[in-house]
Write the structure tokens for this entry.
Amino acid sequence: EGVEAGNFVEDIVLTDLKTKKYQGRVRTRFPPEPNGFLHIGHVKSICLNFGIAEKFGGSCNLRFDDTNPESEKQVYIDNIKEDVRWLGFEWDGSERYASDYFQQLYRWGEAFIDRGLAYVDELSAEDISEYRGSVTRPGKNSPFRDRPAEESLELFRQMRAGGMAQGSAVLRAKIDMSHPNVIMRDPIMYRILPDTPHPRTGNEWPIYPSYDWAHGLSDAIEGVTHSVCTLEFNMHNELYNWFNEKVLSLDDDSLPLCRPPDALPRQHEFARLEMTNIVVSKRKLKRLVEGEYVDGWDDPRMPTISGMRRRGYPPAALRKLCELIGVTKVPTSVIELSLLENCVRDALQETVAAKALCVLRPLPVTITNWSGEDELLEVPGDEARQMHFGKEILLDAEDFQEDPEPNFKRLAPGRKVKLRYSYVITCDEVIRGSDGDIKELRCSYDPESLGKRPPKKVAVIHWAHATQSAPVTVRMYDNLFSDARPEEAGDFLDALSGDSCKELTSARCEPSISAMWKKHQEESEDPIFRVQFERCGFFALDRKATEATSRMVFNCTVTPRSDFA
Ligand code: ATP
Ligand code: MG
Ligand code: MG
């Protein structure tokens, strides 16, 4: 009551609730195949499935679609669970596995043979595909199609017992080889895969169910009401229903939740998420990992959930993105990566309180008219932050131009800038090394300028003390792919940009950063320590790298909206 549908799937859910199609129940599922890490595309599916359950008082299952042991691993299962939880969702009960139903599915396979709904085919894979025909060419029957049910049953049992070689036979549904929908032309239900251990069932099963056979039935067994998937499965919808209806007609009480007046689950297809400058396919992401183009699945440049987490993206930003892009029934345009970055920036702006000054690319400055001891400066409103000021300080090299461009407003010879929380300085002299590079600036400070607003047109910049500052490593990231559509130019690996991670190893941060991190470890639940380096952007401490190098390593999460105003 009072709940409105936010997209076409929710429209359907709402209608089904009103008509009591599922007796008021709503159950969705998120069904990843554990063959890699989840990516930003999966986030859309997770938000949709868990979102519907939350909104309509239903529940959502996490079900691993583990029917291809060749590429599935326990480590992927573990990471997927962590990722879903990190996004802020909890599945109903324990996680489920398609493999939990292998025995049940097998029994239904036998029953199908018995009812003349399936047969063992011994055509080769090539012949099966040739016989299937195409959209424009009807298929033709396999010579094994009309073999007696007893013979098929005998062979199917041999397949199950491990007595048949890989590729020597398959179990197929007997539907119609001239069906206008090619998917319906006697689809494969089982294939033989004897020598590949499964992450959960080990060597128990030498045969594995196909996606089509396993998926809809797993939904039905779990009492799923709305099974949402991406548009590529459009043509499979008819088969999804066919398998479920035929199993229901077996009148075997293993489908208790679907007895009338309850109804079978239905599949609804939505447009997949695609984004510029990245690839969203586990298979392709795996190539990046295996080819060592990136530092693992959780490399901060990866569009994986674990990569985005390590980069410092907050889960709220990912959920917000999904809310903004919505869910549609027709293919949508490719989403600009900048939309995601805006969501990240907005979320961090609201939540990250820790601030520090950090000079990323230090340029030494001597304050020529400073004499005597360093002075300890306070940051107004934040007594935890104190900074030493003295004769030797550092500026960011990007805040100085010797021949300033027309719209450059920061330091240049003869010009003034205000150092944040400190003094106004004037650049009097540029010192070059023997190689001709700028080595140092000689500046003078205005003792009267402390704690005052800077004069008009004087920019405020960040700085650090040359020695009373913390050496840190900062990683700045660029898009992994310089090309907006890396997959369109042929091999996507050719579109990798050469220099998407810059490690700045001489960065210096205000010394209070160590205390901030300590405080975070003691007081915060969030495993990720985030800080805003004023004027540089938001950064997240990389624990892996920090532990390995024993100095703080920060990943740049996102830079300010307009770079260095
Ligand atoms: P990939 O090709 O990356 O492996 P997949 O669809 O094969 O993707 P699954 O693990 O089977 O990966 O996906 C689990 C769920 O996530 C499915 O329901 C799938 O439709 C959905 N999903 C996958 N990629 C996207 C995407 N780009 N946008 C929206 N949903 C997606
Ligand atoms: Mg899949
Ligand atoms: Mg896949």
